[in-house]
Amino acid sequence: MNNKITLLSQELSTLVNQLNDNLEKVMVVLFGRCSAFFDGRIKSHFTDGDRVLMIKKDLTILLHGSSGVKPVQWQLAGAGKVTFNVKSDIQLQMETYRPKTDESFFINFSEVYLALCYNIFEFDEAASIIGHERDFVEYLIKNPEIIEQNLQIIDSEKEIDFGFIDIWAKDLSNNCVIIEVKRTMATPADAHQLKRYVDFFQKKGEEVRGILVATGFPKKVKNYLKSFNLESCIVPWQDIFPTITRPSSVSQTKRLDDFF
User: Fold this and answer.
1) How far apart are CA 202 and CA 204, in angstroms?
2) Which residues contact 122 (CB under 8 A, 6 or more apart)?
């Protein structure tokens, strides 16, 4: 099965055994009609629909719908054991439990269209991509004075119930500061995301500041932030990671901004 795709059985009991035997050895991919339920600090439920389930070798779980870049539900690597079972009222069930936070994640397949395993071989583990939003975050962590003088970085990718805070810091007055980083022009959705993070801690009785970092702020977004006592900070992304000069033989790719 080295470096090859292996189609799994259509017979249910055999399929369950194959799935459980291959977890943590290869990538498992299922195409099918399923529902999903996450039960923990927050709850989410997706009704029956056609989706793609990917379980990577490190047990990262990604459940994708028919559109969009982000999965509709996911679980980070190493969160808990993953098992497949046959249930009487459904065809196939994936279950995982995270003891650390007492959370359960179920995906129930009413129909499996295709199941396969793929033994992925990394051809170039040294390859890297520069210019991702995470690079921007890392740069700001190393240079917090760009955002505000005397800012002390406490944590990054801090997990809360419904997301990850890019940067968690303290200011000169020892106030906690939530910093959300975007490498594009700020949008209303970005501002609302920051507000949700701040609201989460304020409902727990904690005093926090919120700062949205972006390359620019439309008036509508600035007004929204101001109305909720949130702050903005312009950091030109291109000044930190200049665009690499292209050879004259290579045509310039248009950016989204060029169409507006």
Assistant:
1) 5
2) none
CATH 2.60.40.1120 fits 5-118, yes or no: no
CA 253/CA 250 separation, integer angstroms: 9
Average pLDDT across each block of 10 residues of the chain; the chain has 260 residues. List them in order.
76 93 94 91 85 94 89 86 86 89 90 91 52 80 93 91 89 94 92 94 92 95 96 86 53 45
* CATH 3.40.1350.10 residue spans of the chain: 133-240
Residues of the chain with CATH 2.70.180.20: 5-118
What does the pLDDT read at residue 258?
45
- Nearest alpha-carbon partner for 234 in 211, 210, 208, 209: 211
> Dihedral of the CA atoms 57, 59, 60, 66 (nearest 10)?
80
At residue 5, the pLDDT reads 85
- Asked if 84 contacts 19 with a C-beta cutoff of 8 angstroms, the reply is yes
Bridge partners (DSSP) listed for residue 43: 39
Query: Using CA atoms, how far apart are residues 201 and 44, in angstroms rounded to an integer?
Result: 21
Class at the top of the CATH hierarchy for domain 133-240: alpha beta
Joined tokens for residue 71:
């999965």
Residue 150 CB coordination number (10 Å): 10
- What DSSP designation does 192 have? H
Which secondary structure element, helix H or strand E, spans residue 190, and what is its range? helix 188-202
pTM (two decimals)? 0.53
Burial class from Cβ neighbours inside 10 Å (0-12, 13-18, 19+) for residue 211 reads: buried
DSSP β-bridge partners for residue 52? 31, 64
Distance CA 60, CA 218 (A): 37
Specify the length of the chain in residues: 260
Rounded distance between C-alpha atoms, residue 88 and residue 12, angstroms: 12
